[in-house]
Amino acid sequence: MSVKKGTPVSGVVPPEALSVAPTPPAPEPSTAQEWRDRASELEGEGETEKAVDAFKKALALEPNDRPTRFQAAQCLLFDLENPAGALALLEAAPMSAWDSDVMYLRARSLAELDRRAEGIAYYARALEIMKPNDVPNNSRAEIHCSWSLDLRDLGRVPEALPIAERAVASDPTYPHAWECLGYFQHLAKNADVALQCLSLAVALEPAIADTFREDPDYGEFSKDPRFQAMLTTQALTAGARELVPTFWPKGASAHDALPVFLAAVKRFVKPG
């Protein structure tokens, strides 16, 4: 008996009958919230460029959405290393969307574009419009640290030291603030204060010691036995860490409060 081509034999299903229809693509988001959700999914999958595109589509529908603009600019600046793109996105924000986070990222983007002199004013403005009870994406301490380092890069080191003092006053538990202040105290030739600040940074975050070992900015100071001892500072216990902010004198200027505070916490900061 002859068998026609394509006719099943003995119940065998031809391969073409087993093929599965392709899954139709997901529908295009139609609202700002759907675009935000899509962006978050893409960001979680490591598709940062696509996530930024989705954030931009959400902003096209809701231009005053400050958190989305901030998140997209963060991706551009820090993940994609595209400060020009971040700055363009921030400058497109309506005036009503110029909150402290947007101001801070404008300053950081300008710094990455070697336009620090333009960006300095945005640090001060970000701090001015930040409400006392805000819990911002960028702490006051971090803003002060970035501000002081930009001043250094502009050759304005004397102005940077008081800004770094205000960083630790903003948050005495922020290790990078103590790292920043220690560095500027070193530049000011205040070796003892610098070592106290750097020791507290290590006590708050022991991994910072590795950055000090490799930092060429400390030069000959890094060979000082006291500097080497500072690198072995023990981590603060949980109890001591909770007490740290309570020692900061209330009502005093950052400059006047600093020696009082360092003397108070000295008993907790010990070499290993």
Secondary structure topology:
Layout: H1 32-44, H2 48-61, H3 66-79, H4 83-91, H5 100-112, H6 116-129, H7 140-153, H8 157-170, H9 175-187, H10 191-204, H11 208-214, H12 225-230, H13 238-243, H14 254-265
* Average pLDDT score: 89
Tally of extended strands?
0
* Rg (C-alpha, Å): 27 Å
In terms of DSSP E residues, the strand content is under 5%
Structural class: mainly alpha
What CATH architecture label of the largest domain applies? Alpha Horseshoe
Task: Count structural domains.
Answer: 2
| DSSP summary: helix tally | 14
What is the molecular shape?
A: elongated
Characterize the biggest β-sheet. Answer: none
- CATH topology category name of the largest domain: Serine Threonine Protein Phosphatase 5, Tetratricopeptide repeat
CATH class of the largest domain: Mainly Alpha
Question: How would you briefly describe this protein structure?
Answer:
The chain is an all-alpha fold and 272 residues long. It folds into two domains: 31-138, Serine Threonine Protein Phosphatase 5, Tetratricopeptide repeat, CATH 1.25.40.10; 140-272, Serine Threonine Protein Phosphatase 5, Tetratricopeptide repeat. It is built from 14 helices and no strands.
Structural features:
Serine Threonine Protein Phosphatase 5, Tetratricopeptide repeat, mainly alpha, 272 residues, disordered N terminus, 60% helix
What does this structure look like?
This protein has 272 residues and is an all-alpha fold. It is built from 14 helices and no strands. The chain has helices at 32-44, 48-61, 66-79, 83-91, 100-112, 116-129, 140-153, 157-170, 175-187, 191-204, 208-214, 225-230, 238-243, 254-265. α3 packs parallel to α5 and α8 packs antiparallel against α9 (175-187). It is elongated, with a radius of gyration of 27 Å. The relative contact order is 0.06.
